[in-house]
Amino acid sequence: MFKQKINIVDTTLRDGSHAVSHGFTVEQTEAIAGGLDKVGVDIIEISHGDGIAGSSINYGFSKTHEMELIKAAKNKMSSAKLAVLLLPGIGTIEDLEEGRENGAEVVRVATHYSEADVGIQHIEYAKKIGMMAVGFLMMAHMGTPEQIVEQARIFVESGADYINIADSAGYMTPDDVRARISLLKNSINIPIGFHAHNNLSLAVANSIAAVGEGATYIDASCRGLGAGAGNTQLEVLSAVLDRMGYNTGMDIYGAMDVAEDIVEPIMYRPQVIKTAPLMLGYAGVYSSFLLHTYKAAERFNLNPRDILVELGKRKMVGGQEDMIVDVAFALSQKK
Amino acid sequence: MFKQKINIVDTTLRDGSHAVSHGFTVEQTEAIAGGLDKVGVDIIEISHGDGIAGSSINYGFSKTHEMELIKAAKNKMSSAKLAVLLLPGIGTIEDLEEGRENGAEVVRVATHYSEADVGIQHIEYAKKIGMMAVGFLMMAHMGTPEQIVEQARIFVESGADYINIADSAGYMTPDDVRARISLLKNSINIPIGFHAHNNLSLAVANSIAAVGEGATYIDASCRGLGAGAGNTQLEVLSAVLDRMGYNTGMDIYGAMDVAEDIVEPIMYRPQVIKTAPLMLGYAGVYSSFLLHTYKAAERFNLNPRDILVELGKRKMVGGQEDMIVDVAFALSQKK
């Protein structure tokens, strides 16, 4: 039987960085990157949780400069490709150049699902300097499948090597994933990837739903280490894909050992689904809304969960935090 | 839009009993049962993890006699039905009678997926004394959909009110669930239920797959508290079903609060997917095999994970633990 090759993109050292308050050390990074390389992960993403140059008062300072971590990881890697995430507006072309000098071979250019155009120059530059370039669409649950295709095409035309759809709020059900990936598969002719969050406990299921529709790059992290409820649990995903007859090329027992012996001991807390991430996934909103929502709820004597659901319905995006008070006021009038 | 009613069966105080070494107190049971009743759970299952009369040197002693817990819970419940699990051979007709006297209105008679006949008398007796009776088929991944239907029919003919399929090892993928539930739905004319374990991080996904094929009773527990990797996380499931347009009749915010405020503080450890439960789910074998497997692996210098996978392939069942050495010997000869 022909087994479809699925590329595994590990994001323990990038999305997982959020879950350790950007506190990864050189030693930890070497152990994790070296371990993941050995078990056959295809791409290892390393940078501040908010992408290169994310270390700041706004997004949290990295304990160790990410370029040091990238260089250290690269030294321990022999087969996997090293990737960085870049959010235009946070990271720049200069940061990307520095990442490449330190060993990055792949850049994932991440924009809001409706703003691929702000990433065109970064994709084009990466291709010019010989890097693999990925167009990464965040909060993709907010866009219709047609809108996602339209934005993906912008990245395709810029020269992206594959398109990655991110369920950043952990909002999607498997049906939501299938609708987006299948239309993409029928509309563009470069590979498709998927990045899940586990807010609704559906990260592995959504990832296999994406694979079922033709996605061939799947993001995951050891023990699911990542923002909020975390990402797709790497060692579980590789076991499930193997059982379903896909070829990840991975040593699945080895992946279990990296997760249990190297990553688990350095985690700050287990990646369980508590109320806050569950509500964010249920409502489909940014985690940055939480604090503002609690304040507005107190001021207008509302249940903060009702405000989150209303923010999701209105498709509020990051940067619109000051409108939360208006939404809360409107809700309080309706009561 | 018509919203299909899905009945939620909470098993925090039964399957979750495994995860707290059968240590639930009267106070904890009152708080959990009372909380679940208030948020609109339909059935609350209470008994030793291995069913009524499970308290023993073999299965672990209960800290508090389950009949005391059942009576205490009943006092705090006003709308949910109280259920007990009964494994023929462990629990008897007399235990069932005692459970009913203390407040149980439902019995779930659980047998290995291929041995429904050992539960006939318990289903018939329960119906005779006016209880709701459920035929519960364990380790259902080991049977083909046709075999599951054949066994379910035995329970249907005995008078069961619904049939519950249990993925006891947490082995199934959503496709495995769909194959079994859809054939059952087309073959029997009483309601169908599903009980998941989260070994492959697919418990919520498998539960919604079951609902998609027509299952109307779904097991879940607060924070997923249950044996091994735990069960379907109740508060997540209720949020996902709501988002998908099903009617659980539940106060989903209230369920989040019961999980976070009442259950989480009494958990011994978070319900995360470590290597041992992952391997059991990947191989599809009983947790009782683990210790024997480690011993055999040491004796024959094998990787215990290879032995587990072989045991799964050979469809070994509980009680066959002494054959693990034979399997290990055969594997060592092949090497």
TrEMBL record, chains A, B:
GO MF annotation terms: 2-isopropylmalate synthase activity; 4-hydroxy-2-oxovalerate aldolase activity; manganese ion binding
Active site: H18
Statement: the UniProt record of this protein carries the keyword Metal-binding: yes
Marked site positions, Transition state stabilizer: R14
Coiled coil: none
Keywords: Aromatic hydrocarbons catabolism, Lyase, Manganese, Metal-binding
GO process annotations (BP): L-leucine biosynthetic process
Family per similarity comment: Belongs to the 4-hydroxy-2-oxovalerate aldolase family.
Protein name as it appears in the record: 4-hydroxy-2-oxovalerate aldolase
Originating organism: Geosporobacter ferrireducens
